[in-house]
Amino acid sequence: MSEDHKWDLIHMVGIKFMKKVAAERRARLAGEIVAADFYLRQVTVMEVMLDLLSTDFGFDAQSVLRQLRRGDHSLAEIASTWLSDWMDRSRRLWWQQEGEPERPPHPDTRFVKRRKHDDGDYATEVDQHTTGKCSEPAYGYTTEQWTALTNKEQWAARERLFAQDAEDQRSWEAAAHREYESRRESATRT
Length: 190
Known about the structure:
The longest helix is centred in the last third of the chain and has 39 residues, at about 150-190. The strands form 2 sheets. Strands 3-5-4 form a 3-stranded antiparallel β-sheet. Strands 1-2 form a two-stranded antiparallel ribbon. Helix 1 packs antiparallel against helix 2. It is mostly helical. It has helices at about 5-30, 35-55, 60-65, 80-95, 145, 150-190, and strands at about 70, 75, 80, 110-115, 120-125. It is about 60% helix and about 10% strand. The chain is built from 6 helices and 5 strands, in the order H-H-H-E-E-E-H-E-E-H-H.
């Protein structure tokens, strides 16, 4: 099999994968849980298929994943790249066209540090769970403000931010649920 044919096959599986992801979402929102679970199973089979195809085509996926780096950071440390940012914008455009509510930003820019590299810009996570003079400041704090706080004050600041984030998430979910119910009621009246 030629390299072009291999990539065409992987591309075809990728397109089917995205169609099943969309079908699972539609079924789940329509309350068709059995159908949604079936689509999710098909998505899982395609994920396994991509792994097996890559191995069959001579790609060692695990080795490739272990070696993937940008700058000094490995795949597990990178929160976003230009391509993942583009895919996020595409997803959001699709959600908007489907009448879906706006999702929170991902990754949340408060929790990432943008980096530049010859291979492309990327972002890594900013640790929001440590305290101390050398720890990353909690969002909303400058380095000077953060280092002026004691460890106890830093942890209290993080706890306040966590509580506010939790409340913001609950509010967003409640509003999204109300919007969804309103759309669903409107659809049943027409």
